[in-house]
Amino acid sequence: MDIRLSEFRPIQIQKYVAELDLLNNPLLNNDEKEFLVEFYEFLEKELDDDLRALEKLNYYVEEPTQKRKKDLVIKIMKKLAEKGYYSTILNPENYKVGRIMRNALIAFALCGGRWSDASERYIAGNWSVEMGRLSGGTLFCNPVSYKANEYQWEKYLVPVARDGAIAASAMTEFNAGSDISSMECNLQVDDDKIIAKGKKVFITNGMICDYLVLYGRLNDGPIGAVIVDTENQQLKNFRSTRIRTYGMTDAFVSRLVFDRVEIPKENLLQGHGLDIAFHQLTEERLVIGAEALGDAMKKLLYSHTYALQRQQFERRLHQYQVIRFPISKKIRELNLLISALINYARELDNRPELGSSKLMAQQAMGLKIQTTELAFEAAVHCFRTMGGRGFIRQYSVPIGLLDPYCMIHGGGSNYVLEDSESRRLFKYKPPRGKFEEKFPRIDFY
Ligand SMILES: Cc1cc2nc3c(=O)[nH]c(=O)nc-3n(C[C@H](O)[C@H](O)[C@H](O)COP(=O)(O)OP(=O)(O)OC[C@H]3O[C@@H](n4cnc5c(N)ncnc54)[C@H](O)[C@@H]3O)c2cc1C
Fold it and tell me: In this structure, are residues 294 and 310 in contact, taking their beta carbons and an 8 Å threshold?
């Protein structure tokens, strides 16, 4: 049954807003613009129908849609891979635009969509689909490419990075969420195999992936990482189930159970698991920042359009300052943060050594926090502007209204990051000698 009410018309974005078009950003150079134009064309010609079909499945209740969603997501990832848009680790020399910048531009565009001049309509983006791309194309491929030997590269990385097989990264557990280092999943290593025992939760792509990188304790000791071939989800003693989320509805966020799963020992990645997981953290944070900015742009476009179209008390909504001001303020913030993103991504491509800079990692973390908060706030304004329509699927789904709620936690919870950021800023070593003598207490009356 389709739950859409015929009285409610879809919101038609009709007006081009120059400030909400990344191609207008004066900081982007010609090569970057060219790459973005190509990607937007691909989005319109190759992905738009699939993304619309995916959206539509969210309006059916009382009938199974999961298999159809899964097939669409797999098809989209393959199309992305064919053009080198899925993972950006292969053949960086073939592109004029740097690897990280490309990753960020794809993330922005895939979440945000764009007004198409050619067809005079808005081509929608989808943050769930981009989450699938990030999980397989970046969170699986980057750690594996960091440590893979020749065998692991050919057998597990190439099918994902080049051919678009679905992949995942399994870190979070029921008890070890933000506190990753307290994970309990055991990877018991013996002569020729590893036996995995434990559970993982919130794993994007988990129940549709062909391969995943599983983090756990090697013989209940230090954290390690191993590649798991799910054998088309048929792997013995491995179970995956979908977690029903209220945002990111097309992202296949899953719970995984490893009930003494046997994994060949040659799948073990050499090195400490936390180093393997986090060496690419700066890039991941920037890409999530790009996703959030694309998403915020999309929400601002919807709020702007709705404020222009909807009339109440004989006036259009945009004629009320209380509606207009927050939208223009957020557009200003959006463009400031896009400028930071462009500069960070470009510098990381030019100077790869920055990838291991702690200060760079912290700044990327700051960008992740600010951008996901902006997307969150843009969703709040969109919700407010739209009145009752905001809380029904018919409108919240195309806008992805609840997606940014998830991303306050996805990719490292903002509150944990903020807390550690503030602690670091105020870290203070008292000077030698008696503290009270050097800094006498001041009493205020
Ligand atoms: C859409 C989505 C996709 C995800 N995909 C993946 C994936 O593919 N793979 C994967 O491994 N994980 C994934 N996750 C999991 C995600 O990384 C975790 O949700 C996140 O790390 C938070 O863990 P938790 O949910 O257990 O929250 P908790 O750790 O229980 O935290 C609860 C709250 O307390 C706060 N908090 C906790 N500790 C502190 C502290 N020290 N200081 C201040 N505040 C604190 C947190 O910020 C949070 O607000 C995904 C999550 C989401 C939402």
Answer: no
- Is the CB of 406 within 6 Å of ligand 1? yes
Ligand 1 and 176: CB distance under 6 A: no
pTM of the model as a whole: 0.95
Average pLDDT per 10 consecutive residues for the chain, totaling 445 residues: 91 89 96 97 96 94 90 97 95 93 98 90 94 97 97 98 97 94 96 97 97 98 98 98 93 97 98 94 96 98 96 96 96 97 97 93 95 97 94 94 93 87 84 66 61
Dig out the tokens for 17 from the structure.
């807003």
Any idea what DSSP says for residue 439?
Answer: S
**Beta-strand (E) ranges in 265-331?**
268-269, 311-312, 315-316
Name the one residue in this structure whose structure tokens are 């951008």.
371
CA-nearest residue, atom 12 of ligand 1? 172
- C-alpha 417 to ligand 1 mean position (Å): 11
Report CA-CA distances (Å) from 150 to 153, 154, 158.
5, 6, 11
Q: Are residues 287 and 218 in the same domain?
A: no
Domain count, the chain: 2
Tell whether ligand 1 has an atom less than 6 A from the beta carbon of residue 254: no
CA 295 to ligand 1 centroid distance, Å: 20
Domain carrying residue 412: 18-125+280-425
- Residue 177 near ligand 1, beta carbon < 6 Å: yes
**How far, in Å, is the centroid of ligand 1 from the Cα of 208?**
22
Question: Which of 223, 246, 275 represents a domain boundary (last residue)?
Answer: 275
